[in-house]
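Hi L., both proteins are below.
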Amino acid sequence: MTWLLSILNNLRLKLGLGGGSPTPVRKCQEVWLFDNTAFPTPRQPGKWSAEFVAAYFDEDSGADAAKVVAEIADMLGFAGDEEAEARIAERVEPFLNMILARKYVDVMFGGEAGEDGVNGGAGVLRLGPAANQGISVNELVLPGEGYVDDQVVESSAVFVEGEASMRTAFAEEVGWGVISDIDDTIKISEVRNRISLLKHTFADIPTPVPGMPELYQTIQSHLHKPVWFYLSASPYNLYTFLRNFTSTHYPRGQLMLREMSWMELQSFIVSLTIGTQRYKEDRMRRVFAWLPKRKWVFIGDSTQTDPEAYATLYKEFPERVGRIWIRVVKGVDEEKEKKLNSEERFEKAFKGVPAHVWRTFEQPGELEESVRELE
């Protein structure tokens, strides 16, 4: 697959960008600011903190983009379909554009940025510098006080050409939270079929799993607006694509995506199943540290290692995990599904987890009674 080699060769070059002193983002460079969740700052009454994630790209720097799009479209059977080719071009661009290491950006928290500075610096947060993958991750104390649960604050980048904005949702210490997988849990991806996975990722209009939007709205209502996290092994390059999907069909929540090197990206293109269990366990532990008094519902599926990862977290925090629900995916790869969907697999994964805590389901409507039990 020539297009894959093009992406990988480009990424190999990007990984050498880590030297030198950090510099600010400038014109013709693009920044993505990821929506996040604020939590009460430990040992600082009245203060709030949040993890800020930003991605940095050199705009329109992808080499041979048209050729790559044409090859993907031809391989997936969409050659000549202008709408599909436009979607492919939009989604593959973040993989082709040069990522930027050692960059930082200032963000006006709770307001729009102006060309002449922002309130003498009040409310400005500095994000960065970006690591070699073109991503910066900073846990910061937020300016101001008096925020309340479920409040949403919008922020924007300072001195960035074009649009770069984000939303911060506030979550109090107590209440419910939901950690949900994305691929084949709430979005049809067919992870176990490589060509179908590529179609759903790069070419198709994203489709929710039937019944899952309604189930999540039921959870939203019965658990009185829990805090939501959408935890996926997909690379951050798909952030805007997945954010648009989740915000259209599901309750507002924070997307947590993988920071990937070119070798990990190759694994993603081939299969979304490599190394996901440890990654998800680590991210869930981080969420638990942010909100140590919340109780949680985990929702995933049988195609990857969601059962094993969720069971691990239950065994570490049995008093904090209320329910684990696993969607059984059928009809993608029947041979592999014999093992993935077997009772033996689930019994082994959930050994030591009480029977009332976990269950599998095929149709989302099966969980209505289970949701009501949590009220």
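That was the first. Here is the second:
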Amino acid sequence: MQDKRIKETTIPRFVNEGTPTLAGIIALFATIILVLFVVKAASTSNTSLATEATLELSWTNSDGTQSSGVVVVELYDDDAPIHVENFGILAENGDYDGTVFHRIISNFMMQGGDFTNGDGSGGYAGKFFGYCDGQEADSASDCTMSSYTVPDEADNGRNHAPYALSMAKTSAAHTGGSQFFIVDGDGNGAPHLDGVHTVFGEVTSGFEHIDAITALCDTPPKQPKTCPNDKTPQDVVLESVTTNMEDDSWWKFW
């Protein structure tokens, strides 16, 4: 009768006389990788959000000289998680890079984020958040990507204080997409927008750059408006936006 027992040589030895074999070393390495993967998967949330964004800006001063600066923004990931996620996605995709602040009103705010048209008529959310042009929808297939909007989180208790970062939208609910604005540092902010527009961050560094840009549209007494149609004579450019959103790739264990 044929011997059907498993021979010793069928299963490679991991240790030979107290010394790990090549098979043993490979098995140990594979085990370590597996353990690290399990630990990473258990400790990492799929909804990890950014808590900070860095905006690089460039503009032309009233005297024709060129300036640039970096503005750092704290993001309210707890109070406006949907807006922060949306902002992070658009930043990661590079959608904001090279866009302009198309609307600047002295003592009020500077608005940008229209990455499709550049004039305030375009832009859309970074992914489907359950709304198409402000209307609740069941599926992303209910509308085209250009109609994606985000639900309001305006009742989060955050106010439009000076240097606040807020979502631009129409007068209708849930119509924010990609456009945002930063409240001018002068005065008392924009309290009339509280509870209507969603504040999802605030400037923590680079205040002087916000001041310099909004001052471009200051109009001297009895003089024609410096910024006709609320736009600077030369573009104020948002060169890039980066965030500290973690890369949760499974193969990164540190």
